Protein 1
Amino acid sequence: MFILERQEETTMFKFKKCLIAAAVAASFAVTSFANAADTLTMKMGFVDPATSSYALGGKKFAEELDKLTDGKLKVQVIAGGTLGGEREMYEGAQMGTMDIITIVNTVLSQFIPELTILDQLFLFDNEAQAHAAVDGKLGELIAKKAEAQGVHIIGALESGFRDTFSKNPIKSLDDFKGVKIRTMENKMQIAAFNALGAIATPMPATEQYTALQQGTIDACENAVGNMLINRYYEVINNVTNTHHQFTYIFVGVSDRTWKKIPDELKPKVYEAMKTAVAWQRQNLKEINDNAKAELLKKGVKFYDIDREALKAKAVPELQKLASNVPQEWVDAYKEAVASAK
């Protein structure tokens, strides 16, 4: 999956997009509750295709919720951005025109500034630490903040760690010097790669294959599975296990829909999502493991790197950008990391 990335938009353009997204979402929401009195059917939106690990996780959630509530609560997964982009879906949930939405943390931080803490690179050394963050107190703080905005966060699927793909091998910090690397249009990524000595080159995800092919950039970064899916191995064949950023796909229910769920069934919603999250985490791991095996067959080379050296260069710059994050959030992150070492 590519994390949703947007260029700056004019206020009027944003307003028009919001109206369009709201109209589309409303047309779906009208049918959400046109069922028997004892059955509630909810629409769940994804920007990713139906075959993605995230949408499959949504389907697992739907199956579990149907089973746990004896068919009283049903979920229809609608993938491929049919219900709008992640920002539009979240705004729709706030307005009550959406049922269940999914949104990556780098977009959610535009609504919850404190979440910038998770936008930083080199936060986690392993999946256990990343899971502990959203499964613990930090996750509770995020949920509380979103609830005040009219969205009930019920869990976090994941996109996992991102690595560096390059034309020339990158085996050490020095190898980053002068490398033109495509980044998201995100201040954290830009600052981090510039600090490593690379030349951060932000551009839309859809342009990076051609940019690599034409030599406009020398490298890019993403989850390993995406190197196979998007055929980057055709133009670059080196992967460095930088594991520089971990990303999440938060799942939220609009307050309007949440109030329609009987109180006795609300715990079942959390239970079903917990099962789906565990399933999707394993599914994503299998996808990435299989992708690595396939890439090795295609001649792609994988390299480890001294991540501590990278962190020493990048983290001070990132901390400057996240200096306004409340101490309570910082402490919650530190507790999570310490608990999963």
Protein 2
Amino acid sequence: MDIALLGFGTVGSHVYELAKDRSDIKVSAVLSRRPRPELSCAVTADFDEIVRDRGVGTVVEVMGGVEPAMSYLTAAMRAGKHVVTANKQLMCAHYDELLALARECGVSLRCTAAAGGGIPWLTSLARVTRLDTVDAVEGILNGTTNYILTAMTQGGTDYAEALAEAQKLGYAEADPTADVEGLDARRKLVLSANLAFGVSVHEEDIPCVGISHIGASDVAKARELGCTFKLIARAERAPGGAAAFVCPTLFSVSAPEAHTDGAGNLVSLYARRIGKQSFSGAGAGGFPTASSVLSDCLAVQDGCGSYYTDRAEPCGVDNTSVRARWLTRINGAYRFEDCTAAEAFALYRENLASDPTALLARVAE
């Protein structure tokens, strides 16, 4: 199986490393803006060369961003090439379009590395959806925020110091917004909910609160309650479509989530007959992500379908049926609220108007 890599950063270089000693998968071309004399395959800055290469059966996109990645992948599928991507932003932005095009062109589209790739989560979820009805998914889906919260909880570091350390170690980008504000976790939730429920929800419809407002006093408050903070993405079936949100969540110190430390991920599904199943693994790193990319290539080689699911019904987000207990902080005062998720996020928006550092956290059952 000959594959072409689009991009040669952290993930691309690790895919190359994993594939170089294999006899069943060969990296025959790399799309790169600069020469790479250290590589034994063809290196080009012209994507059209890859499209025209009939020997390349699968295009692996690990460059990130929406464009030109979208143009490259649509051109590859129209040329009859299978596509594997680690690009959660692209998949969320063009989910319906990409799935429809894969079916139209008779090619496979896989994105296991885009959500919980080190587990791998999406393939595990897809297996369960073929056996049972999944009613909810939730979990720690961002290694960067989990590293920061672990450092703040266990090491007593403040938020700024923990973030700086995460950046130093390569867990957080120079601009950490997508991670710390929950946007990365939200994109992974979109892919998870879509697959779990056979729907198509829009990223912008899901309310999202990150961890940037969590300070030392909040960590102390959590400790006083016998809890610890984790950033959780959750989606469940609801009468109005799907309920979905991302926010800090307080877990009892005895909960498995509370013991998922560092850059680890822990994600669970709740199925009607099978019950709860949880999956854990690395939430960041070149080799864990690259292994999911390579696993997708093997699935394509084995003749997998056009996507993990054949269903993608348009679906709105309705959080009015989900009730929980919530911890809020406004102007230094903590309060507990028992209300729906819709009401909690509306209250949070109101609180931000008078306190830009206001806190909202769900209390796990």
Protein 3
Amino acid sequence: MRALVLGMVALLALAVPARAAESIRLGLLAFGTVQWEIETLRAEALDAAHGIRVEPVELAGKDGSAVALLGGSVDAIVTDWPWVSRQRGMGHDLVFVPWSLMTGAVLVPADSPIHSLADLAGRRLGIAGGPLDKSWLLLRALATKRHGLDLDTAVEKTFGAPPLLSQQMTAGRLDALLTYWQAAAPLEAKGFRRLVDVASIPAELGVTHAIPMVGWVMRRDWAASHAATVTAFLAAENDARSRLCAEGADWRRLDLLTKAADDASRDRFRRGFCAGIPKAWGASERADAARIYAILAALGGPDLTGSSPGLDPGTFWPEVSY
């Protein structure tokens, strides 16, 4: 009888269609490091293992990501929380979930006479992003604290995309370069020297905890109504990170994304990626985020903050804490 019942259950299971997995549409930039993680997640079917379906939507740039999220054509993008605070002040109820601590670095040629931020005065400095880039504002704050130097007026600035600036740096058209960590790694492999690690700046400015500047950003109403999907996605994402950072992890399949050409480059990318995984995110970290926001606001002003001179208290999704 038990065998008959089990057989009937099996037949019923075949007859009743399985409930479709909930999907989450991720707006991704072609050059973003988050692509490395999502590629791993999908290649190993970690989304299916957690009962969801990840749908990557490739977007052209940061502005395109913002439009896609606010317009509802994607469910989540990766960007920074100061932008979320600004958008909240404009009436867009967005929330932030931390993703990475990694930011960038200032590089100079190995034989450069530049050995301090003060030595940048009068030099040609490439800056990845724009005038309101958070790493640039933090670097300005550090130069003022250390040397009383206003980098904004002291250097010859060139803003641009990381690949173009890397080419200019290699060609000798720049004396120093502030760029994202993944763009800095290949240059360091060529012998360029790190002058400043942006991730270390907040501590020198009086911020105690390591704060992830970038993370997943969603519309609060969508996140609240799809809380189980969000939780499952974050669990799948954590599994992908664990596999990428496991001892002996094979990063060769990511070569098309990382542009790595040898094991040394792969190891450099792996170490940088894994070092960026946040270790803690609680009340203390959120309080320090407000301190960083105040530093950025003092330099970026309304162009950065909009109508939110202080960090909006609803910026961070309260369901995530570790």
Protein 4
Amino acid sequence: MAHILVLLGPTAVGKTACIDAIADQFSAVVYADTACLYKDLHIGTAKPSAQEQSRIPHYLIDLLDLDQSFDAGDFFRHAQTICTEYAAHEKPLIISGGTFFYIYNFLFGLSQAPAPQPGTREHWHRRLEEEGLGALRQLLFSIDPITAHRLRPNDSYRILRALEVHYDTGQPLSSFPRPSILRSEHEWLIIALQRPRDELYARINARVEDMWRRGLPQEIEYLKKTKDARDDSPAMKAIGYRQFFMNLPDLQAVKTQIQLDSRHYAKRQITFLKQFPIHHFCVADDIKGISGHVENWLKMS
């Protein structure tokens, strides 16, 4: 059984800085962040720096090429292997990142819905290109209205996943049970970092400005020319990258769109946090308080 701190919080709240500040209390960090998985994405991902990664081992960063896909099942299997390897370590692990869907499934376990059959995923991606997301969402309403009402209109990954399940099994995704009890394989401490909304949004805007100064538009051009980055590349779906493929009028419009989409993403993350059994809500800069919660948790374990 591994002891695991799950450190949650919306984008730009300060998760990476917090991890760096409390790193000495931990054995390793498992990153749950779709964008950080891609080894050619740097400026737009806000990955921990080389110096931050040198403090303790960091996992599930720089793992994939641009055209490779990764889902919650992949994350579960990779993270479970790492946590099992560290279970005997005297210090706990951290799991943190912005892809809350990965973390939620790791905490509670994967849905009982089967993985897609060979060719199914390609079938629905082809239909997405031909018909558009709106048409596929309406199709989902006709075959699985429970799931369709639960998903955001632009959540292409989960809309396609629901269609895949029905295509392969003839049953709606909503008919497969969703685990609701924390897995007992590990010992959990779940902390959510917080900031006032206006402060968080200001940090998001400033982060995007910093990405621009560091050369995000040039990174995109490099990826297009040397890595064949395209709008249908899985890696280019990440915020900070997909906006460059949206036919916006100029780079200023791209930057503004990234800031807007990042703020909207943070808002959705804050809503998603309500689904987690949070043990402590902490001000993001209260490192002493966060460290104290960890110490007390380990004493009681």
